[in-house]
Write a structure and sequence with these properties.
Layout: H1 2-6, E1 12-17, H2 20-31, E2 43-46, E3 56-59, H3 61-64, H4 74-80, E4 85-87, H5 91-105, E5 112-116, E6 119-123, H6 134-149, E7 153-158, H7 161-168, E8 176-178, H8 184-187, H9 201-209, H10 215-219, H11 223-241, E9 259-269, H12 272-292, E10 295-306, E11 311-322, H13 325-339, E12 345-357, H14 377-393
């Protein structure tokens, strides 16, 4: 198999720390003289029940056997396993463990794209010639991490990032898995649709109503039917189900060419209704900054950081460039619905890119009259008046009624 890929395609690794927070805490405790390894007993990482992090952030294999799930309240976990051992999160220590691992990985190649504190992509293509096979290279990396740092990783191997990510999620811990294109039908298609990357809760519900229960069902479904129900996100999921993804590992972050804003929530948001007002405020902020810069955005990106500090983002191109907060708000909400897993959220963000001058003419199509995204002239005048008042008397001097906080009776 390897010889066939040597000259044909990229080789991408996805490297993911096994139960990162729990593993790193266990390693640190053992280093400081602990007699028990948290990874070998029913144990979790989670804050106390009074704190905003009162959920399970990571669990040991033994805790998983009790039915304990990441994201559930710590109190629930103790009901399932009364003798559960818990430790609080230490994010400063986690960042240091992450930095050490990334520094080690960069001794192999600089082509590393870190996507969260405990996972990254590596473009193995340029160094593949040093090894008999990609698996040999992955073994050296995996075993090197275990020997140097005391924790384990899973490594997924394929020709693009999507398939490498899916492969690394197969059986854990301390494993290497391949998912090359010819292995998709056997290894990926039988999996439940909810295990497909970027298939959020609302998308899964829609697909199940269409009797699409596995990744293979989606891969073989009519693309027109999928896009009818899930629009551009459906097309992306259909492509993912068929193994279509990018092989570009972005080793350095793109130069900031957009305008955005994000906010950490005072309490984790657990419902869509809690998220909407946050996006509304972010959209007002980003739209105002775009207008001040004399720009309109052609692309909108929405960012989620979950309770366990995993980050996901999702973006879409607007039908035509805009700096209207209402357009940014509606787009962010739609992007959120498409990929949200249903887990508690601690940070939300909106970022815009593909900026154009506000005065730059926009080419319209015959469909624009049927799909108005920009406000009409009356609302444009109202928006300009609001902007002028807030500019003169200070931000927040005049706000939309929909953004006013509700009192205890649900009134604004």
């Amino acid at each position: 198999m390897w010889k066939g890929y040597q000259s044909m395609a990229s080789i991408i690794f996805h490297i993911d720390v096994n139960s990162a927070y729990l593993s790193w805490t266990a390693v640190e405790q053992l280093k400081n003289g602990a007699k028990v390894d948290l990874r070998e007993i029913p144990a979790i990482i989670g804050g106390d029940q009074k704190s905003r992090h009162g959920v399970v952030l990571a669990k040991s294999p033994a805790a998983k056997r009790y039915g304990i799930r990441t994201g559930e309240p710590v109190a629930n976990a103790f009901r399932k396993c009364p003798n559960l051992v818990t430790a609080p999160p230490d994010h400063k220590m986690y960042r240091e463990k992450s930095r050490l691992m990334m520094d080690y990985l960069r001794t192999f190649t600089k082509e590393i794209e870190q996507v969260s504190v405990d996972e990254c992509y590596m473009d193995f293509t340029s160094i593949a010639g040093r090894y008999n096979s990609p698996i040999d290279g992955a073994l050296e990396i995996k075993d090197g991490i275990k020997e140097r740092f005391g924790f384990t990783v899973n490594i997924g191997i394929s020709t693009n990032k999507l398939l490498a990510k899916m492969a690394s999620d197969f059986e854990k811990p301390d494993r290497i898995h391949t998912l090359f294109p010819e292995e998709i039908q056997e290894k990926m298609w039988p999996l439940p649709i909810g295990e497909l990357y970027m298939a959020g809760r609302s998308s899964v519900e829609v697909l199940k109503k269409l009797e699409i229960n596995t990744i293979g069902d989606l891969a073989q479904a009519d693309l027109k039917l999928i896009t009818l129900h899930l629009k551009s996100h459906g097309k992306m999921l259909w492509e993912f189900a068929n193994g279509i993804g990018t092989d570009v590992v972005q080793s350095e972050p793109d130069e900031a060419k957009g305008i955005g804003n994000s906010t950490t929530l005072p309490e984790d948001a657990a419902t869509y209704e809690e998220v909407c007002p946050v996006f509304e405020r972010l959209a007002e902020s980003v739209g105002g900054r775009l207008k001040k810069a004399g720009k309109k955005a052609g692309m909108v990106s929405m960012e989620i950081r979950y309770h366990d500090f995993r980050n996901v983002s999702h973006q879409t191109q607007l039908e035509r460039p805009s700096n209207d907060p209402a357009v940014l708000y509606e787009t962010a909400c739609e992007l959120f619905r498409e990929i949200w897993s249903g887990e508690p959220v601690r940070l939300l963000g909106i970022r815009t890119s593909k900026l154009a001058d506000e005065a730059e003419p926009v080419q319209l199509s015959i469909f624009d009259i049927e799909l108005p995204k920009e406000p009409d002239e009356k609302h444009k005048k109202l928006n300009r008046a609001l902007d002028e008042l807030n500019s003169r008397y200070g931000k927040g001097a005049v706000i939309r009624a929909s953004m006013m906080k509700k009192d205890g009776n649900g009134k604004r």
